[in-house]
């Protein structure tokens, strides 16, 4: 059996087209402020990629970088961005230093500019099925499902992972009465015993647990759909690092009906979703003027 490879690039391109049309239709000047503290090579690479993609779409990215900052200083910076109508959206790049309470920071960002969907108001609206910004990786999973016409209604979806940015929101979204919802959802995590008993039941398996190649073919059922939102850096024998997902792609490829690659799957959609959120925020701000 030849599995369908759910590539992220065509999904991202379709979102980019919609984003460009939104910018042109309302003559928007979207601007994203990214706050980054300290040095983290992976974070810096991610932010550089956001800036490059943003420039192509006509979205300005302002980088506010601090070698170090205390909680009060960071709150001050966020409040300035909240009050600045020239800034459409705010993103706090993680990880933050240990002296910064992420829960406090998430609550300070204006919900209207919170394009990562981490403010408690956005999280609550997601739970209630109201309009809000959805965490970008979770929304990327939905965009892939929509693009490839994967049916979720009455399906058993198993989510492996319970983070606030992927596991919890995506499980909740699958429960909504919507074209990408109406599913029966099971959530597994690091303390789930005999996890394969649950993954074997999945019509659709979504992984976001951060364990390289954890899911093997004996842990899935025939003709399931796998959405791998995990990204793990591993070292190979030649000392070159590479990225793999939570699913052993080659091992599961011939048993499943469809699967996202890593890299080239969910991750390649996430930045595009983030930038689309920036434009949505810019449009809302312009309407208020």
Describe the structure.
With 289 residues, this protein is of the alpha/beta class. It folds into two domains: 27-110, Leucine Dehydrogenase, chain A, domain 1 (Rossmann fold, 3-Layer(aba) Sandwich); 134-268, NAD(P)-binding Rossmann-like Domain (Rossmann fold, 3-Layer(aba) Sandwich). 40% of the residues lie in helices and 17% in strands. The chain has ten helices and eleven strands. It has helices at 9-26, 41-57, 71-83, 102-108, 120-128, 136-147, 167-175, 196-199, 249-252, 267-288, and strands spanning 4-5, 31-37, 60-66, 89-92, 156-160, 184-188, 204-207, 225-228, 232-235, 241-244, 258-259. The strands form three sheets. A six-stranded parallel β-sheet has the order 1-11-8-7-5-6, with helices on one face. Helix 2 (41-57) links the parallel strand 2 and strand 3. The termini are far apart. The mean pLDDT is 94.
């Amino acid at each position: 059996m030849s599995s369908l490879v759910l590539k992220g690039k065509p999904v991202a391109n379709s979102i980019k087209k919609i984003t460009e049309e939104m910018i042109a239709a309302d003559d928007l000047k979207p601007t994203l402020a990214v706050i980054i503290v300290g040095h983290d090579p992976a974070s810096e690479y991610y932010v550089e990629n956001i800036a490059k993609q943003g420039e192509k779409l006509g979205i300005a990215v302002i980088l506010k970088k601090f070698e170090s900052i205390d909680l009060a200083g960071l709150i001050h910076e966020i409040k300035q961005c909240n009050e600045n109508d020239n800034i459409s959206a705010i993103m706090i790049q993680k990880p933050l230093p240990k002296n910064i309470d992420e829960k406090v920071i998430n609550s300070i960002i204006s919900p209207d500019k919170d394009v990562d969907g981490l403010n408690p108001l956005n999280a609550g609206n997601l739970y209630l099925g109201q309009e809000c910004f959805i965490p970008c990786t979770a929304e990327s999973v939905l965009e892939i499902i929509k693009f490839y016409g994967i049916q979720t209604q009455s399906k058993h979806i198993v989510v492996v992972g319970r983070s606030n940015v992927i596991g919890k929101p995506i499980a909740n979204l699958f429960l909504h009465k919507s074209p990408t919802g109406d599913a029966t959802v099971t959530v597994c995590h690091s303390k789930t015993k005999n996890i394969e008993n649950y993954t074997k039941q999945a019509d659709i398996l979504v992984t976001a647990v951060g364990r390289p190649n954890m899911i093997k073919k004996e842990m899935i059922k025939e003709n399931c759909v796998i959405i791998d939102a995990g990204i793990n850096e591993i070292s190979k024998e030649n000392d070159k690092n590479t990225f793999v997902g939570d699913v052993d792609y080659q091992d599961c490829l011939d048993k499943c009906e469809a699967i996202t690659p890593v890299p080239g799957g969910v991750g390649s959609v996430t930045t595009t979703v983030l930038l689309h959120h920036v434009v949505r925020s810019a449009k809302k701000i312009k309407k208020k003027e």
